[in-house]
Write a structure and sequence with these properties.
Strand content: 15-25%
Bound molecules: zinc ion
Structural class: alpha/beta
Number of domains: 2
CATH superfamily of the largest domain: Metal-dependent hydrolases
CATH topology of the largest domain: TIM Barrel
Number of helices: 11
Distance between the termini: 15 Å
CATH class of the largest domain: Alpha Beta
């Protein structure tokens, strides 16, 4: 039995918008799953196999990047970059969701080929986790000619997500809606490319097509990079009652703030989730999710502890994951962070709401320490330490 005890926690962020901060200074995980948390004196800390002294820093569920374009291992051909996933782990991200392995050179677009590649990609990231990061990949981009059986076959083979609708040949709402419905019938979640074309070869998807398609996630509602006009973004926020409003780092920052302000006014902040949309033409953003949390907290009038929920708990709920929330039985995936050295504000949360990044001191995945002081964030004031 592996027993992880994290003590002297300064603050526990829960990932839950309805109660973003939990009481307690200690958390216990058994065999990679959260068991309990609270005051150390009330918990059974005996027989630990690993003890972390948090030295007063904040513990949060590991961040989730809802929108990445991985290809293979920890390498992206898009920007010829190695170890971008490890770099992102250093930004507090412990789970990533593929929106399509679209940067694979020679990506097959015939139906048997695209199915084969999706299944292979799902497998190679299931079998190999770069630096321990959970990459949910194998996200096929739908093409004309696919039939219901194809979606059943993909689901049976372990595919759980569609790549961005609109990046393939299907660019009309009627066909897209039919395929998204087939996918959903077999338990496959869908996302759609929203806004103008991202790179030569992709196209415009406007609010009408997003609504007609009815995908589960409104992928980069703030554009990737070119955003829809304001009235269309507001229309999507008003019309869509369940779908995730996914805001990405590689999108339009002004449209991101508009989305959050609109969602807040509508009482729909629980639909806001975050991604980077990297690797892409804009590059790779190891700190992308933290940067979005700070930016949206600062410009969107959102308390920092709520903005953190956009980057973990909301995504967990929208995407039906067992990570991203402090919840019994959920994966023991955490990021430990503290106010950055010399950042203004009395607390970590106060520094974030002023637009500053926190410093990451440690990441833990499935109860195992995966990284210590981040090589990418500004240095944290205090650092957690493994003492057993
Ligand atoms: Zn896109």
């Amino acid at each position: 039995m592996e027993k992880l005890v994290i003590k002297n926690i300064g603050m526990i962020l829960s990932g839950k918008m309805e109660e973003p901060i939990f009481d307690g200074d200690c958390l216990i995980a058994i065999d990679g799953k959260i068991l309990e948390w609270g005051s150390e004196k009330d918990l059974d800390t005996e027989d630990a196999t690993c003890i972390v002294d948090a030295h007063g820093v904040t513990l949060a569920p590991g961040l989730i990047d809802s929108h990445v374009h991985p290809v293979v291992g920890d390498y992206t051909p898009r920007q010829q970059q190695l170890h971008w996933i490890d770099s992102t782990l250093n930004g507090g991200v412990t789970t990533m969701i593929s929106a399509g392995e679209v940067h694979m050179p020679g990506r097959p677009k015939d139906i048997v080929g695209l199915k084969a590649m999706s299944i292979a990609a799902q497998r190679w990231y299931e079998n190999f986790r770069p630096s321990g990061v959970k990459v949910h990949a194998g996200a096929p981009v739908i093409e004309h000619g696919m039939v219901e059986e194809d979606f059943a076959e993909l689901a049976n083979a372990g595919v759980k997500y569609l790549g961005e609708v609109g990046l393939g040949s299907v660019k009309d709402g009627k066909t897209a809606n039919q395929m998204v419905d087939w996918a959903r019938k077999y338990g496959i979640q869908s996302t759609i490319h929203t806004g103008g074309p991202s790179i030569p070869g992709s196209g415009l998807i406007d609010a009408d097509m997003v609504i007609e398609t009815g995908s589960d996630v409104i992928g980069h509602i703030n554009g990737g990079h070119s955003a829809l006009p304001d009235d269309q973004i507001i229309c999507l926020c008003e019309t869509c009652t369940k779908q995730a409003f996914e805001i990405v780092h590689n999108g339009n920052e002004r449209a991101a703030v508009l989305t959050v302000n609109t969602a807040r006014e509508l009482g729909k902040l629980d639909q806001v989730i975050l991604g980077t949309d990297g690797p892409a033409g804009s590059g790779v953003q190891p700190l992308g999710i933290l940067r979005m949390i700070a930016m949206l907290s600062a410009f969107g009038n959102v308390p920092a502890e709520i903005a953190f929920c956009f980057g973990n708990g909301n995504t967990s709920r929208q995407r039906d994951l067992d990570v991203g929330l402090i919840e019994k039985g959920y994966a023991a995936d955490f990021v430990l962070l503290d106010q950055a050295q010399h950042a203004p504000g009395k607390t970590m949360l106060e520094s974030v709401v002023q637009g500053n990044l926190p410093g990451v001191g440690m990441t833990i995945i499935d109860g195992v320490i995966r990284s210590e002081r981040s090589r990418n964030t500004p240095p944290a004031q205090r650092l957690p330490e493994r003492i057993l």
